[in-house]
Structures are given as structure tokens and as C-alpha cells.
Amino acid sequence: MDLAHSSSAAGRSRSLSERFRALRSASVSLVSPLSDADATIQSMPDASPAKWHLAHTTWFFETFLLRDHLGGYRLFDERWPYLFNSYYEAEGERHARAARGMLSRPSLDEVLAYRAHVDGAMEGLLGREELADLIALGIAHEEQHQELLLTDIKHALWRNPLGPAYGDLPSGVMDRGEGALGWIEHPGGIAMIGHKGAGFAFDNEVPAHRVLLEPFALSPRLVTNREWDAFIADGGYRTAGLWLSDGWAWVQENAIAAPLYWREGEAFTLGGWRVRDPEAPVTHISHYEADAYATWAGMRLPTEFEWEVAARNSDPAAGVQCDGLAVHPVGSGQLFGDCWQWTRSAYLPYPRFRPAEGAVGEYNGKFMSGQCVLKGASCATPRGHSRATYRNFFQPYQRWQFTGLRLARDL
Amino acid sequence: MDLAHSSSAAGRSRSLSERFRALRSASVSLVSPLSDADATIQSMPDASPAKWHLAHTTWFFETFLLRDHLGGYRLFDERWPYLFNSYYEAEGERHARAARGMLSRPSLDEVLAYRAHVDGAMEGLLGREELADLIALGIAHEEQHQELLLTDIKHALWRNPLGPAYGDLPSGVMDRGEGALGWIEHPGGIAMIGHKGAGFAFDNEVPAHRVLLEPFALSPRLVTNREWDAFIADGGYRTAGLWLSDGWAWVQENAIAAPLYWREGEAFTLGGWRVRDPEAPVTHISHYEADAYATWAGMRLPTEFEWEVAARNSDPAAGVQCDGLAVHPVGSGQLFGDCWQWTRSAYLPYPRFRPAEGAVGEYNGKFMSGQCVLKGASCATPRGHSRATYRNFFQPYQRWQFTGLRLARDL
Amino acid sequence: MDLAHSSSAAGRSRSLSERFRALRSASVSLVSPLSDADATIQSMPDASPAKWHLAHTTWFFETFLLRDHLGGYRLFDERWPYLFNSYYEAEGERHARAARGMLSRPSLDEVLAYRAHVDGAMEGLLGREELADLIALGIAHEEQHQELLLTDIKHALWRNPLGPAYGDLPSGVMDRGEGALGWIEHPGGIAMIGHKGAGFAFDNEVPAHRVLLEPFALSPRLVTNREWDAFIADGGYRTAGLWLSDGWAWVQENAIAAPLYWREGEAFTLGGWRVRDPEAPVTHISHYEADAYATWAGMRLPTEFEWEVAARNSDPAAGVQCDGLAVHPVGSGQLFGDCWQWTRSAYLPYPRFRPAEGAVGEYNGKFMSGQCVLKGASCATPRGHSRATYRNFFQPYQRWQFTGLRLARDL
Amino acid sequence: MDLAHSSSAAGRSRSLSERFRALRSASVSLVSPLSDADATIQSMPDASPAKWHLAHTTWFFETFLLRDHLGGYRLFDERWPYLFNSYYEAEGERHARAARGMLSRPSLDEVLAYRAHVDGAMEGLLGREELADLIALGIAHEEQHQELLLTDIKHALWRNPLGPAYGDLPSGVMDRGEGALGWIEHPGGIAMIGHKGAGFAFDNEVPAHRVLLEPFALSPRLVTNREWDAFIADGGYRTAGLWLSDGWAWVQENAIAAPLYWREGEAFTLGGWRVRDPEAPVTHISHYEADAYATWAGMRLPTEFEWEVAARNSDPAAGVQCDGLAVHPVGSGQLFGDCWQWTRSAYLPYPRFRPAEGAVGEYNGKFMSGQCVLKGASCATPRGHSRATYRNFFQPYQRWQFTGLRLARDL
Ligand SMILES: [Fe+3]
Ligand SMILES: [Fe+3]
Ligand SMILES: [Fe+3]
Ligand SMILES: [Fe+3]
Question: Where does the DinB-like domain start and stop, copy by copy (chains A, B, C, D) (predicted)?
Fold first, then answer.
């Protein structure tokens, strides 16, 4: 099946079953620190309630697997697809995105019952080889929503003047290994980009194709809070010449003077308000801020192609990624983890890209306008979800994800 | 004390204690059909979460009674006044009104604990005669919020596509007694307006003063759904000449074509979606709609003075008012009850009006701009709360309260 | 004819002819300092281009006099009624108010030709007695637009960073006569309000009727720039407790800290930027500002009824009013002139008010919602236009008219 | 000088002088059909008044040539740089873009006098070889504004209900030569992109660099009105699946159902309202519309690199481009002319791109965010202005330029 671009390894279906069950269980554990009310509120149109994430990912399996492929399956509730479809036009009318916070009903318990119902029915499909790609897509989809659930609840809790914590942050200090790595240099030339062969990938990662690169170098680590403080101290947010025109307008209109979640000496984290660690990677910055910082530093953002080529041989499951609940970037010497890394690349289709037929074809292609590509993985990304060819994308002003910055320069 | 304008009858303090306890208990029972999530969401900036109403009314007692008058009282939580102050500038900074729906914490249970704590401490003040007026003000204040809690949760549940019910509606059909009453005629002349003498009243009801009235007549009952259907069928919402200029702009911009909560043949009620009763009073109409209807009917809205004079000898506790939970206008032959009745009077200070000193002086006076007076009481008004001199007020476009219309004409 | 409420004095038609010709000529002279471009631009939706005022007042005569009453009259241009109808719904669709500044065509010269054409045709109607009331209405209408033309062009020129002058200001210093007048005291009681008998009046000034007044006093002169400076120095714009709730929100949202057109030590006038005269009346203030000042001064705004009763025997044509081109408030001991004076009265219909039949019935009645009454006359009011019963009205936030403040207090 | 990337051919300065004089004269002739009022109005924030274009292009020469390089030069008016700086932050504060329509002063005549003054002073610099690149930049800059002047005045005249014409359209029917050309096929491979060597180019066209292309084909001609009618008839504007997500939101919010300037059977042109020619290229479409059409047609938009490579050997001065006043796309067999052609490429910097030092460095680089590249030239482009490496760019929703569409497909 085109969308998922998976290999057909023997024994995959068993592993897929296990992965499905682990995934579904992990999502539920993410809401364990939350009350029904916590899981209901929506703090901005870009964010969704935790409860909605749990239900929407379940709707995905119910719709594209159970409804379409399990004979005799009855919907858990016929009114719910209207509530929990996100943006699939082909699936009909749906509840307005900005009004997801109005759904005090169904309750969190009812949503959990929905999950159990769908999980039970899914057992009948997990072994069907011809559905493996679609199930893998559903898993990858839910992993994405696990990350969104964490960043969305962080935003919601931050808007509460009481500043409640979602959970405990890891207390140990990571070996950041700054000394270990030098600038990552690359001689340029023709490089292969995109996914090919075994393993799952989204449709926006294919077809694999060649690009021409000039010689470049990537910074060995992400820009830190200490460095960002220097940017601020040097008037970075008040110097028009450092900014893209749209970025400067955004700074002026929103009176931006620091990353999101900063206040004097502190930052809001999933563990509540904490003193900022100067050596940790700066996070919650927009593309505009990342670009201005790079200009200030006399460098630039990497392209998505440069980043992908540099990361080809790195372990995508290494670094600071999400294994449990409360997460926070602390820094490491890895290419993956801590923060998604803004590139200067616009999110556009690869040559000969074709969306899949049907509703799942709306997964990626229609968003290829006005957004920027991010590479890597963040502290909130389920470990194992990302890879070198992965293309994350957000609007250039958005910064409630764990976004950060790795510098590049020409050689 | 000026604000409350109460009489000092012997034994009042005991009755005040009983009223306080009954009031506080009634508020809690209003949230019995609601989950923590239901009580947390805010469906528009004009509305507040149910939980917030419970906490804000408690903050009023904690601040103006316990903090100011109970030696050694410690705040339940020092961070909560910031959350639950509504608009008292003299009480300092406060949480933004439009962001009240972000407060998933404190939980409903914590708010109920807050109420119990304050209720306990209040026992030490209930017998103090010099505080009786301030306590009576706190009671009247909480009664207002009981009505708002009902209208706000109605709005929130309506925004849920599942259309959940808050509770059961009364099933019995009321004797509407239409035949009983004819037009209420009045010969005009000098009349006394406003509150004087015994009993509680808000500061906006004084000083009592004289006004000159022309001869007029008031309709014996409220305009009904059946009559409103005729207005619609006659093109009422499409005929510019019937509308105030601001009203016509409001109709155009918001594509208004029916009262709030109407859909084909049905209306949303606290009992969920129900078939509309043609003989019940029309409700959830704006001042603009009421004015346009009156013009269409060849009549006009009454002034607040006409209404008050006509109602002087009516029982303000009669009619369809709130005794329990789910409420709905069904019609009666009374002047009070079913729906608040729009007047053509702007909400302005009475001659020689003076706001009270201190924060409670912000209770009414500062809102005397741009709003319209409503008289009577609605099905959601706690029975006993209103009186002939009562001045309710809302913006002319607002219609999520149980608002209705009684016609007037010149004699 | 009801609308104009005029007397039928012998010889009126001749005088009406003369008044018509003088009026029409005066309007044209108002644009003598303006280029076609000056007369085309629209600086905000509340304001209209000078050219539009010239054409719209002509459209009024063409439509309600020539078209309706002159046999065989042909429209000057059949497409222009669409352009120059202001708000008469009964006259059909019209050009959007906010887009009046798009009309670089027709040119100012073409509009002047339109005026000449209509003036010529009007000669055939000026002697017809049965049209005298309608012609008087057209004259009063155009006088209103003469004032708006001046206040609108002032706003437009102010928005130009070059700060061009419309004309020379009168240089002589007026005898302000402050000493001459004491507080104007009135014992209260029953008073007649509104227009009755001979002379033109708008429909909103009738029917005459009685009101009851409490004893009050009016300040002998308008509040001055010097006094306003003291209000500012005392933190008037930063003290929430002085303001109506809507007013405080307006101050915060718009960062209001001074009257419109003020900058350090200067004010923009029709003569360009000028040093402020501390003894001249403060002008270009909103109702909110006027109300806050009165509260700060320990007084209040008068009601429209108090003002009218106090002014009954004053000469409405005295004081600083408009005789020529450039105008500015300089102060005088008169009740009329310099600035329109905000009252605390909402703009509402008088008892038994009925709009006229047909399109001219839209003149006043439909605006009776959300606005405040102003009394007197300003330096831009054509001398002879106003009278004690005159009811001017604007939104409480508007301040581009020559608006000012006279204090009142209870006796 | 880096910015202009010009060759230093002998005799260039003389030709530059001639080009300068011809350019300056051509700009003035563009306003010959306009009154001062026409040249003053601003119909939307994206557009500027004709007068402003004349003055701003003059300010560019006055600032970067005369002020910086002509000893003893005195500014024509010291207050005007504030008015006529467009977006150069390094040149200080400036008049708000959206308020350019407030400038009834200076008059068109005064602006023409400004032009004459600057032109005279420029004679002293035209022969200086070291300034040739900067002068060439000023010329290219003014050519861009000539095109904007035409598209902006078209928009302004369209907003006038009278629909006035700017001038006569060419009446002759062009030989469109559709039969002449087949699909333009290209085998892909490594191609050089960007400007190198002799001749002027903007800084965004360099450095020249290599890209890898897949085999592709370009349509021989632009999509026509007839074809667009078929798209509409087939429900193109109502079919979500054809649109980018941002595009679909734009269609919904703005109720888009046809290209800009269309009404039943007609289109607004610089010659007023005209019957649409079905064989002429469709124009005034957004990127979103172009992309949706291509999807509907089973094809795609070309990349900017594909277009540039295909056009390398075409004559950039051929086709329907601007030689005189009134212009309109009529169709031809050329790659250049008629309409700017949307590509699927985001407007991003070329590898090793560096903005110039100083204020002129703000010319292009800071706009490299959120915009789309267009290639070719339009009927309003001064003939000789464009070239194969030229990168025009606009926001994907903008469509008041003469924008059109050439299809591409993979081979
Ligand atoms: Fe999803
Ligand atoms: Fe309250
Ligand atoms: Fe008018
Ligand atoms: Fe420019």
C-alpha cells in the first residue's frame, strides 16, 4: 500500500500486534495525571483537549480499519465520528476545530470505554497481512498525537495562573557530551533524499530522489538557553535587520521578547515553573526566532536536505526522547531528540509525489503550503517514532511544540 | 449601610442566617447534574463556568465579610482571589474574564471544599447586626449568580453537538390563565419610582424619586412562540424598516433569523432539544429583536417606569420562577416570571444616585452605559429574589438570558 | 407635515428661497481650500469625504423634492443615487459607507455641476408652500453636513504627517466673560421639554411633554484645557475608579491618555498644529472622558432635560459658532457654541414619538439605541442651526466632533 | 557591486543615462489618464496610490544616489522621506503602509515637481561608472513599481461602482499561435539555475548554482478563460479535495467562486468592464486557485527551476508585455508575457545567498518567507524588465497582479 511504504517482513504482523497494544496502552497512561476537566479544556485553536486526542486516534482505527474492513462492525456511537474527525473532508462534516473545548461530554471515562471497545474489535484485524500498512499508519498517527497531547496539555496548564505541574521532571543531569562532537562537515554533491525500502514512512517522505548539495557544516549541538540569553541581551528582539519581514511583523504585533513559556529566570515546564538551565537547549521558539538568531550568529538554518544527509547514519532512537510521562529538553550530543529543529526548507512535495487515494490521502499533501520543515525528534516524541527522512512541519509562527535550533554554515 | 437599603427588623439576623444557609446549599445543588468537566468549560466570554460561579460568590463572602470583618481569618488559598474576583478594580489584578474556561484546577471538589470552609467561618459573622446589610448583599449577589449559572450551563451544553440535557423539565402543563387578564391600563401622572423603606434593594434602585408618566397600557401576557412564528413568516428578520439601525447591523452581521437556541420546530432547553410549545412565551431574544417585534406589532416596548408602576401591587414571588433545577418558561398570567422583559429604557443612574464607598461601590454604577433595563423575573430567577423596583440590565444584543417581551401602547 | 414641525408664517416661502440659496452657496465655499484629492479621501469609516457631503446633500434635494415633486424631472445621473444615499433603506441599495473614499470619480468639478443642476431645478419648487416643510428639512440636513464636512476634513488632514492647515484660524482673543456668569441654579419641578409651535424642528424633538426635575445647578462655562491638564496630571486616565466600565475598557484597548488631536503642548486644529490655549474649552473628548472628568471633579454630567430647561431663554445664535471657514473653540460666556456638550442622557424617543412615513422617517428614530445626547452647538455649527430643544447624538466613544463638557451638580 | 550583478561593458553609462531618462518619462506618462484624486486613493493595504509610486521611486534615487553620492545635495523636502520610504528599516521610521491613501498632500503636481528636481540632480551622477550598478537597481526598482502602479489603479477603479476605465484596450486580436507549440519536454538532469555574467539581476537571482531535475513537460500555453469556465462548471470551487488546506480555508472565508474581477460574463479591465474572451489567458487567480486547477486537470504547477530551464532560450522581451498604457492579457505562443505564472516553489534563498550591506540589502532577502515564486512576465511588465532567472514573488492568496497558470507534468 502506497501510503505506508512498509516492507513485508515475515513475522511483522505479530510485532505489529504487540506494537498496537503497547501504543494504545501508552496513550492511556499519558492521561493518568489528568482529571476529566484537565482533559476537556482547549487552550487555543491550535491545541486540542487531551480527551479529544484519545478519541480522535481511536476514531482513526474505527473508521479506516474497523468500519472499512471488519464485517458487521457497529460504530461505538454513531454521533461520535462528527466529533472526532479532525480534518478529513472526504469523511464529511465535523465539529469545528476551535470548539473542541466545548466537549465536556463524552466524559474521559466514556472515551476510555470507547478505546477499550475499539481495541477489542481491532484484535480481529491485527493479524491480517493486507491491513498491516494501514495499521502501521494508525500507529504512527497515534504516536504523533501522543506528542501533541503532551504539548497541548503543557500549554493548557501554563494558561492557569496556578501553574500546575503535569508530572515530575527527570531529576538526573544528563551527560550532554558537548565536547564529544565537532561541527559535522559535509562535502556536498549528489545525495539521495527520502524514504526507500523497508520500514514505515509517511507519504510525504517519498519518492526517494536525488538532490544536489553544496558543501556545508552543521553545529554539533542545539543552541542553548545561555546563548539565547546573549541574543536577548544584545537586543535581538529589537533589531529589525535580523528578522524576516513576516517575523518582524509578528514580533511587533505580539510584543514578543523571549521564547514561549519564559518569565524572569524561569520557564514553564511539564513539571511546573522551573529555574532555567542555561546549558539546556532553548525550546519553544518560532521559525522566525530561529532564523533571526542564526542571522545574529552569522550563520543560517540548515535545509531539510542537509540535515537528512548529515543524520543518515545517526541512531534515530537515541537522545532525549519520550519514554514515559513528564519530559523536558536537557541536552545531549545527539542529532535526534530534545527539540525538533527548524530548517529553512518550505514544506513542499517531493518530485512525483502523489497523495494516496481516498480519505487517508488527506494525511499530508494538502498541508504543503506555507509551512516549514522540522527535522529530528523532541523530548516529547515517542522513542522510535522518528527517522532521518521524517518531515515534521509547522507554521513559522508556531512555537508550542518543543522546537529548537541547530546552526548551519557554508563551507 | 447605603448599599443594601435594608430595614432593621428585630429577628432579622436569625432569618438572615437561615437564608444564608439555604442559599449556599441551593447553589451547590445546582451543580449536582454536572461533572467537573461540565463545570469547567466556558462557552463564550459573556458566560462563566459553573465552578467559577460557585467560587466567585464564595470569594465575595470571603473578601467583603471574612477578610474585612473576622479577626484572624486566613484566606483559604492566597492565590485564589486573583482567580475569582470578577471585576472589582479596587481589589486588584484578576484573571482575564475570557480565560475563565482555562481553570481545570482547582477542581470542583476543591471549590466545594472552599465553600465549606467559608461557610464555616461565616457562622461567626451571621449574628452581627452591623454586617446584616452586607450579608444581604452577598446573598442577593449569589442569587444573581445562581441564575447566571443556569443560563451559562445551558449555553455550554447547547454548544455540544450531542445536545446533552442538564435535567428533566417539569412535565405538567401550567394553567396559563390568558383569559383572566386584560390590558393593564394606567392613567399616567406623577408616580414614585425606586426603592424606599424596608427590605433589601440594590444601590441602583435608589433614591426613590418621582417621574411623570403619560397614560399607557401593558399587554396582559408575554409574546408567545406562536406570535413570533408569525413575525418570522411575515419577513420580520428581513425587513430593515422594523429595526433600530444597530439592530439591523447586528442581524446582518450575525445572520440572525430566529431566537437563540431555535432550530427547525425545536428549541434547546435545559432538558435538551424539545419541540417548541407555541403557547409558551418566546425567550432568548435580544433587545433589538424585542424592539423590532413591537414595531411590527404596531406597539412599543414599555419604559422601565411604566412597568414598575404597573407591577407595584403584583406579587413578585408569583409566576414561573426557579425553585429547583431544570427550568423553562411555560407561561402564566403573572407580571413576574417566565422571562425578563426588555424595556425601552437605557440603564442610567437615578437622580442623586451615589455609588457606595469602596469596592462594593463597583457593584452597579459603573455599568450605567450602553445597557438596557429589563424588569420582572425569569424562570431561572430564584423565587423571592426580584421585586417591582428591581433593575436588571444587559447589552441590547445579548440573549442568552431568559429574555422575553411584553408589549405597551399609548392611551 | 409632521417631520418638520414648522409654522406657516406669511412670506416664509420667500425667506426659504433665500435661505436655500445662501445655504447651497455656503456649502460650496467650504470646499474652496480643498483640492479634488483632499475632497476625495476618507480617513475613517465614521467620516465621509468632503465631496461626498456635497453630493449627498444634493441627492437629498434631488430625491425627496425634485424626483418626488417636480414633474418631468430627470436625474442628473441615474447611477449616482447608489453612490450618495447615506442610510435610507427605503431608497434601496447603496455604496458601502466604509468605501466612500474609493470615489475618485465623479470629480469635485462634476459634483459641483451636479449641485448647480439641482439648484437650478429647485428654483421651480422653492415657492410651493406645501413643500416648505420638506425644503426646511433639506436645509437643516445640509447644515448638519456642513458641520460634519468640517470635522471630517479636520480628521483627514490630521492623519497626514505633514499636518496641513485647512485655513487660517481667527486670531483675535475673545472676551470669554468668565466672571460674568455664576452657576446656573434651577429649583426643579415640572418642566416642558421638546419643541412646540412655530419654527423648524427635527422629529426627535417632539412631542413636547412634561418632565419632573430635581433641583440642580449648571456650571457657567465649559471645562478648559487648563482644567483637563490637571485631570491628566492627577492620573485621571490611569484611575479605573473614575470611569464607566465601558469607558475603562475603551481607555485600555486604545491606550487613551489625552483628548483626540493632542500632542505635547499642542493640538491639531483646522489651522494646523497650534499651541494649546489653557483657557479655551477642552474639546474632542468622548462621553467616557467627560463622565470620568465629572466624577473626578466630584460632580456629574447634566441630563438633557436640565440643560434644555436652563437654556430656554438663552440666545441659541450667540457664542462661538460657524460663520465662515476655519473654526476653533475659544470660549465664551454663552450656553451655546464652542463645543457640543455631553449629557448623561441616552438618546431615546420622547413619549408618543412617531417617525414620519416613508424614507424621511429614517432620519432620526432608528438611531435611538446606544447613543448619548449632546446639547448646545459648536464652533462648527452653522449659526442659527441649533436651539434649546435640539438633540445631537453620538456614540459614547466618538470624539472627532467638537465635543466638550459642562458640569452639573445636585442642589 | 554585489547587489546588481552587472557587467561593465564599455559605453554602458551612456545607455544607462538614456534608459534612466526614458524610464522616468514613462512613469509620468502612466499617470496621464489620472486625476490628482485618482492618484491619491488606496484601495487596500496591499496596493499603493499612483502618486505614492511616483514619489517612492524618486525617493529611492534621492536617497541611495543623490543623498549618499552627490556632494552638497539638499533634500527636496526634509519631511518627505518619512512619507515615501516603503519598508527600509535602516532608513528609519516611516508612514504606515495602510495609511498611504491619507496623503492628499503633497499633490500630484508637487510630486511631479519632485521628480523633475531629482531628475535634474541625477544628471550629475549618470556618468559615474562606480554608481552604474546602483542606478541600474533604481531603474529596475522603478520598472517594478510601474507594473504595480497599473495593477493598483486597476484595483482602485474596480472598487468604484461607476467602473471607470483607465484607458483604451488594444483592439486588435493577437495571433495566439496555439498550434505552433507542443508541450515543452525536458529530460531532466543537472541544470544551472540563477544569474551569472553580464547584465543586471536582482540579488535574489544569485548565486548561480546547480539543481537536479526529473524529466518533465510544460504546457505550450497558459490556461484560458474557457478552460477556467469548465473548472467552475465542474464544481471546482466547491470541491474540497482539489485544494490545499490553506486554500480551502481561504475559499470558504472569502466566498471565492471565480477569479478576481469577474462578474457574469464580464471581467473588469483597465478599459473598464468587458466581455470575457474565452481564448484569452485566465488572470487574477491566486496560487491556491492555480494549484487547485492543476489538481483538477490531473497535472501540477511547475517548479521555478523547471520553468527557468525551459525558458533559458526564449526571448524574454517577446509576448504580450507593457509598451504603453492600457494593457490586458490576450494570449500568445510565448513563455513570457500575458501573465506571471505561479510555480509550486516557495520563495527561498539560493545556496550561499547573502543580502547586500546597508539599506539596499533589505530589497529582497527579508521577504523570503511564506511567499511563492512566479516566473515569466505579464502584460503590465515593462518590456525588457524580465528574464529567465527573474523571481517574482507574492503571497499565495494575492491575485490583484496579472497572475496566470501554465501546467506541468512528470515524464
Ligand atoms: Fe490526526
Ligand atoms: Fe459577581
Ligand atoms: Fe445625511
Ligand atoms: Fe519599492
Answer: 20-140
